[in-house]
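Hi,

I'm pasting everything inline rather than attaching a file, because the server keeps stripping attachments. The sequence lines come first, and each chain or strand is labelled.
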Amino acid sequence: MEEKLFSLEKFDLLLDTEWIARNFIYLDEVDSTNSFLLKSKDIKINGSVALSEKQNEGRGRLDRTWLSARGLNLTFSVLFTKLKKIEKLNFLNMGSSLVVAQTLENLYALKTELKWPNDVLINKKKISGILLESVSSGSKITRVVLGIGINVNQPIFHGDFRIEPTSIKIETGNYGDKERILAEVLNRLELMIDKIDENPDSMLDDWRERCRMIGDEVEVRQNDKSKYGIFDDIDKDGNLLLKVKGKIEKINFGDISLT
Amino acid sequence: MDINLVKKLVKVLEESKLSELEVEQEGLKVKLSKGTAFKGETFAPHHFVPQPQFHGIELKESNEVKDKAEPAAQAKDLHEVKSPIVGSFYRAPSPDAEPYVRVGDRVSTGTVLCIVEAMKLMNEIISEVDGEIVKILVENGQPVEYNQPLFLVKI
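And the predicted assembly:
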């Protein structure tokens, strides 16, 4: 298995952002890049990026584990200190999955699919997971951290998974270019943030186009309970609209799967 | 109506923090009220001990006192932590983990109190004040609305 560590020089040449990743923190090993940026209060620069070759406690929703072998994949987080409107964060969450999907389509001609609210799938398998975390005090958001994991060069995944994982290596047979993927994701992310400020509807349209579960019968698992219905659409805020016995129910959290 | 019952009711009213008492029994209605208006500042509804229920008699709190007392008392020593978003309320970082805080815990500014999740955005709510958790108003895993009170913190 080829372990190829991240080349900062190469990445820097490909990065075309104004503010994202202009402060870049490279970590050989860390518990999780999200936890690192959430806890490191001395890091205050908007758009700071932390990348780690290995996460020992990579996390997903509700502390689920995100496994990634050292040096093979991309695990990184972006810090936002100027996002004050909490209602915009849902757009950032969905917009980020769109950015990852667009990057993989562009660089590797892969056909991607988005799973509500922010997983990126290829052939029904998970290639990227996103976890957005924020800290609020009163009505103010003090810190927002966007964590993204992309499976790039891992040739095999061992274990039991809620959704089977895949990687660029598995899907294309070739090694993916981590520096190129990261630079393109961040370049697109910066543009996406402008877009969700100006025209969130257009981002939601692009997202909707890649969500192939719309119209299907789905199960929505919310903690210990399940709801069943038709995935009717997403609304203007990004909530899932579930049609149950002819009535529309708004869903704003949970795990969805086809029934 | 039995005069002894009325006497008993007068006693109940005198000994209570109520300003008004209205009783209806077998078609007869008696309304008792205290002569001087109760000053709300020292009265907090959360310290209220539930009164015993009489058969067929309804104890009524004065709404006027309650309305005045609530904001004053809360502004003075009780801080309400509210949800900044619509979402799902979690007391712990994961289903198997220990809760961030329990009733009786001392918290300080910056202590993590809970998580509210909306669309896979996990928002940690930290305390704005130093104090003690006196009440947790929402059960783990329940949906919460925008601005819904989640905790009461005694400052």
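The two ends of chain B are 47 Å apart (CA to CA).

If the labels don't parse on your end, tell me and I'll reformat.
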